[in-house]
């Protein structure tokens, strides 16, 4: 009789880079900023984001079919899904502080699909956190009101380079309406926007900050500004994007 190999739980090491990422997410969450985290594949962006959101702890508590605020099912006047009722469920105390949604952008998706999926994840996070709060008060059976209290304070979008401008605008619209912070995780190129500029071509955070300030994180305006930046680099035989290059691109192109 063969023995099953022992499965060892992987331990996450909080590196200096992860701590910096956590501080970055904390700021976006607290001040409701839009932030961009970039790097090559394999740099640890996804693992760091899932750890920050505690997604490996939360996602097993979600119902098999994500529900939205409309069309919720009832069973004997109770919600059919009780996150902490099964053996092996994590302690509800571990869930109380969770406020972050982790979302992986599909390879191809309409803006409507993205809106529904992000809203469903936000509603489910709110449901699970509310269940944890009720359990902490000793209430195992509870019936939530029709309107869930909103718990989502940050949405992290992984593989953002897959999204087309219309999908990015949809997420920006959700950000405007949802009053939560938003973080994009993307690889080093802007090729999905038709750009050949690499994120590594930016000399420092000042140049990126100038783009965010000038465009107000409007992705149509970002697209036009990046096109002008690329033109300036080509004409002047430059290889890096500085704050001065960004400002020059703004002067040469009417934005808005």
UniProtKB/TrEMBL annotation:
InterPro entries for this protein: AAA_22 (IPR049945), P-loop_NTPase (IPR027417)
ORC1/DEAH AAA+ ATPase domain residues: 30-183
SUPFAM superfamilies (UniProt xref): P-loop containing nucleoside triphosphate hydrolases
A Gene Ontology molecular function term of the record: ATP hydrolysis activity
Top-rank lineage group of the source organism: Bacteria
Name assigned to this protein: ORC1/DEAH AAA+ ATPase domain-containing protein
Native source organism of the sequence: Ktedonosporobacter rubrisoli
């Amino acid at each position: 009789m063969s023995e099953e190999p022992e499965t060892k739980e992987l331990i996450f090491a909080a590196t200096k880079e992860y701590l910096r990422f956590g501080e970055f997410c904390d700021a976006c969450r607290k001040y409701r900023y839009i932030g961009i985290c970039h790097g090559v594949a394999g740099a640890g962006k996804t693992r760091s984001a899932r750890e920050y959101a505690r997604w490996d702890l939360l996602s097993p508590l979600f119902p098999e079919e994500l529900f939205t605020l409309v069309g919720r099912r009832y069973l004997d006047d109770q919600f059919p899904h009780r996150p902490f009722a099964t053996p092996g469920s994590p302690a509800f105390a571990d869930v109380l502080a969770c406020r972050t949604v982790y979302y992986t952008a599909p390879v191809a998706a309409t803006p409507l699909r993205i809106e529904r999926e992000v809203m469903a994840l936000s509603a489910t996070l709110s449901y699970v956190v509310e269940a944890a709060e009720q359990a902490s008060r000793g209430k195992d059976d509870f019936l939530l009101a029709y309107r869930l209290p909103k718990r989502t304070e940050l949405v992290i979008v992984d593989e953002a380079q897959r999204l087309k401008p219309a999908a990015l605008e949809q997420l920006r619209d959700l950000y405007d309406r949802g009053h939560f912070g938003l973080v994009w995780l993307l690889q080093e190129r802007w090729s999905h926007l038709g750009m050949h500029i690499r994120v590594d071509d930016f000399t420092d955070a000042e140049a990126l900050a100038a783009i965010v300030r000038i465009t107000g994180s409007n992705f149509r305006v970002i697209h036009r500004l990046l096109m002008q930046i690329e033109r300036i680099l080509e004409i002047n035989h430059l290889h890096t994007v500085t704050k001065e290059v960004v400002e020059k691109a703004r002067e040469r192109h009417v934005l808005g």
